[in-house]
């Protein structure tokens, strides 16, 4: 992919994800349905106007800066003989671009969704046949429609669902709420997966792509994971801000990633910003808008080093780098440096048959705060087809 080639038209994405709204008759039906609704339809109305009949809405999944997200399932799996587990395993998330009265803002929303669709399609469409589990750490795209109808403004994309609803952010909040610490097992495993996905993005094709929005809310946790250890997977989402890579943008991506990982690794240990004190409760806006977490990330005061392995302390120092000299090699160097320790934790999980009890305790506690795909919501949908 060269810079002369428009990133909005990756052949692999088009081939893997044919448009869901290609029929003129279907477009006419949508226009008629739109006239029946008010001038300001709800997000669920927009969803129902947008997606073809092959998808069935299950429940809301959340809302981002440029789109509303819903748990759905292909209609072929919604019938009286289907089960909750089958529907859960086939569930997808559909993101619909937000409507906007202002044309410029509407274009921004649609363009952000288009970038996310194109990046996921190009990423997964160009993976080598022999791929590591880290290569799966970017949400896949299955279907989409970008041919926005002016009066509807309802472009959409159908992505891989993460039914747990967990993010790094909900894990961080759970450490404060339930007094549980992040385990080294999760620290090293997530580090390798997130840096692996970013490294693949940065080296995708000739020019590479940068994420530009790496933060704890944009890393979802697939649990159980697909790695043989059954450790949870860290999955990057929300690629609406991607751009072609430049050395400066790659450094910015790496800095954001290092700051996020260090912030997460210290969660629950009483030494990180926003944890362990009532005066400075954890705050999403404070983390995302300010640099406090990054500025103080190298401060190890108050940390009982006897509670951590030398490798964990080494990782924290590595993540505290103020200067990134070689953007192209930084992620590879860190992954190689800590590979033996990462594999040690993964092998212990393989031998055990899953995450450690402490990791499971944190994951289950965080699940209480997550917007997960509900069995009750699935049953309610299935009941309509009995």
Automatic annotation (TrEMBL):
SMART domains with a match to the protein in the record: S_TKc
Location of the Protein kinase domain: 55-386
The lineage's top-level taxon is Eukaryota
Question: What are the boundaries of the region Disordered?
Answer: 1-44
Query: Where does the UniProt annotation place the signal sequence?
Result: none
Q: Where is the composition biased (Basic and acidic residues)?
A: 24-36
Q: Which PROSITE patterns match?
A: PROTEIN_KINASE_DOM (PS50011)
Which is an annotated GO molecular function term of this record?
protein kinase activity
* InterPro entries reported for this sequence: Kinase-like_dom_sf, Prot_kinase_dom
> What is the name attached to this protein's record?
Protein kinase domain-containing protein
Question: Which lineage ranks, top first, belong to the organism behind this chain?
Answer: Eukaryota, Fungi, Dikarya, Ascomycota, Pezizomycotina
